[in-house]
Amino acid sequence: MINFNYETDFNLDNEEAIAAWLSGVILSENKKEGEISYIFCDDEYLHKINLEYLKHDTLTDVISFDYTMGNEISGDCFISIERVKDNAFDFNVPFDEELKRVLVHGILHYCGYKDKGEVEEILMRSKEDEKIMLFHVERE
To answer: Domains in the chain: how many in total?
Structure first.
């Protein structure tokens, strides 16, 4: 089950479509959907989590806590809406596209993809693009 929680004034206007897409992403990776929670927040909220749990004194767009057991993926995915907006501006992409990228980024981590090295990062970006395309195909 995919849940959306809000710790800021942001709200998804298409929760059902996003949840259905993310469920499809999970299936496309031959995984089973467990309990996945998205928590939308601001920079300050996510910065505190980054300091407390990861000991990183930096701003970030997404932090994923992975509770996957075997083939059933589960986790908590915290997303700073402020970072997503800034990144969308910096990368010259629509906000909705950048939001989809961070939404699917957490799922891909739960599926076992990493992004620490250059090769892993290239694969992660490729997978993000592939899964974002699934959203557009499902809506047509």
So the answer is: 1
Q: How far apart (Å, rounded) are the C-alpha atoms in residues 40 and 91?
A: 21
Q: Is 109 annotated as a binding residue?
A: yes
Is 115 assigned to a binding site?
yes
| 57 annotated among ligand-binding-site residues | no
Torsion, Cα 16 69 38 87, to 10 degrees, reads -110
Write down the pTM of the prediction: 0.91
CATH number, domain containing residue 21: 3.40.390.30
Q: What is the pLDDT of residues 29-69, one digit of tens each?
A: 999 999 999 999 999 999 999 999 999 999 999 999 999 99
- Whole domain around residue 78: which residue ranges? 2-139
